[in-house]
From TrEMBL:
Coiled coil: none annotated. Residues 26-155 form the Nitroreductase domain. Keywords: Flavoprotein, FMN, NAD, NADP, Oxidoreductase. NCBIfam families: PRK05365.1. SUPFAM superfamilies: FMN-dependent nitroreductase-like. GO terms for molecular function: oxidoreductase activity. Belongs to the nitroreductase family. HadB/RutE subfamily. PANTHER family: MALONIC SEMIALDEHYDE REDUCTASE RUTE-RELATED. This is Putative NADH dehydrogenase/NAD(P)H nitroreductase H4F99_00300. Its cofactor is FMN. InterPro entries: Nitroreductase, Nitroreductase-like, Nitroreductase_HadB/RutE, RutE-like. Its EC number is 1.-.-.-. It comes from the Bacteria.
Length: 194
């Protein structure tokens, strides 16, 4: 498989930034496109536990607002879309379709709490794919914690086995409003080859 061109690597990684101020329009079609890209990222046993609510309407934003920490409220309310990235602790119910060549569902039968770690881990992976997919379709992102998970879960996932993980504001950012880029650890500081 060939390496992507530098322009693509810049868009996905090197020049992509976390935006605090996002505006513009984000169509439903773009949201479908970014999900349809993100869904192809790998997960353990193809479990695909990520569940996403794209909060776009004024009414839905009003439902989300009480759960936001003060520092995230204004920017989230102003963003065209906020993705609530969650994970389904009953993901195993879909495994007969998603992983049909063996009885993977039986691997995860039992108490829901025993499925929390794989659901959270793989849902987090898929949330990262969602950010990269958003960048790939031309959107800027503002991923964040800083909200009351219990309030979000009660408002958007009541009566389900879905738990919120993090939020991602989506839209179009102004590069002129960004802080200088923060450094990253070097390979030798963060990695080793054994």
């Amino acid at each position: 498989m060939p390496t992507l061109p530098d322009a693509s690597l810049d868009q996905l990684f090197r020049m992509a930034r976390t935006h605090n101020e996002l505006g513009g329009e984000v169509s439903d079609e773009i949201l479908r496109q970014l999900y349809d890209l993100a869904k192809w990222g790998p997960t353990s046993a193809n479990m695909c536990p990520m569940r996403v609510v794209f909060v776009k309407s004024r009414e839905a934003k009003a439902r989300l607002e009480p759960a936001l920490d003060e520092g995230n409220r204004a920017k989230t309310m102003a963003a065209p879309v906020t993705a609530i990235v969650g994970f389904d602790e009953d993901f195993h119910e879909k495994l007969p379709v998603l992983f049909p060549h063996t009885d993977a569902k039986s691997w995860f039968e039992g108490p829901r709490e025993a499925r929390h770690v794989p659901a959270f881990r793989n849902g987090s992976l898929q949330g990262a794919y969602l950010i990269l997919a958003a960048r790939a379709v031309g959107l800027d992102c503002g991923p964040m914690s800083g909200f009351d998970n219990a309030k979000v879960d009660a408002e958007f996932f009541a009566g389900t086995a879905i738990k919120s993980n993090f939020l991602v504001n989506l839209g179009h950012g102004d590069p002129g409003k960004l802080f200088p880029r923060s450094p990253r650890l070097s390979f030798d500081e963060a990695a080793r080859i054994v």
